[in-house]
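re: the backbone from monday

yeah here it is again, tokenized this time
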């Protein structure tokens, strides 16, 4: 099953990460291109959800 979450704020990131930790294939869509680049590189949403590592099953 593939899941997409639209919105890279705190709620969208938390929901996408929770689903990804359950071994589901999740894509998180966000408006801010620089935020997406940082999340992809650092595996954390430093703008809206700092301190919470993102699952490896989460793509952008």
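seq for it, each position gets an aa:
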């Amino acid at each position: 099953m593939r899941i997409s979450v639209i919105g890279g704020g705190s709620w969208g990131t938390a929901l996408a990460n929770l689903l990804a930790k359950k071994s589901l294939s999740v894509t998180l869509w966000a408006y801010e291109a620089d935020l997406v680049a940082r999340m992809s590189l650092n595996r954390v949403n430093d703008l809206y959800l700092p301190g919470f590592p993102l699952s490896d099953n989460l793509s952008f």
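The longest strand covers residues 2-6. The mean pLDDT is 98.
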